[in-house]
Request: fold
Amino acid sequence: MSIRTALLSAALLTLPAIALSQTPAPAASATTSATATAEPAPTVHPRVGNETELGRAYTAFLYAGQFDSLFAHMSEELRTDMGSPDDMAAQFDQFTAQVGEEIKVIDEMVVMRKGSPQYWRTAEFSMAPEPIMIRWVIVDGQITGIGINPASQAPPIDPDQ
Reply:
């Protein structure tokens, strides 16, 4: 699923949760052949310590419509998925038409998910029936993923937090 499609889906709140570039790996089968090769362990990207500060800045860019600034901080893969700053702006406009503006931050935290640090911002929005979570996957200061979902449908985090 492209991030563009995911943002639109989140805007319409038709999907239970969006985990962009964070889809869970399939469960291992108990009947896996002994000759099958094991999948390599996912790369773990340690926290740098500035993810909260960066997450706040990226959220400010998002709310201010500074999509060129967001694109400047995105990985090449994410930029390709998003299309263009104008495409992202159109998707965000649809999102805000559905949920309104952020009116109160409920929680901010940095968690590890699938080996990468994520900044999670949960907030009340003026027209949303429940709090919304905006998630930024931040690896070495670069945005490598974005997720938006109802806070009640937060994805699982890595067990060793």
Notes: Residues 1-36 have pLDDT under 50 and may be disordered. Helices lie at 3-12, 51-64, 67-72, 76-82, 85-99.
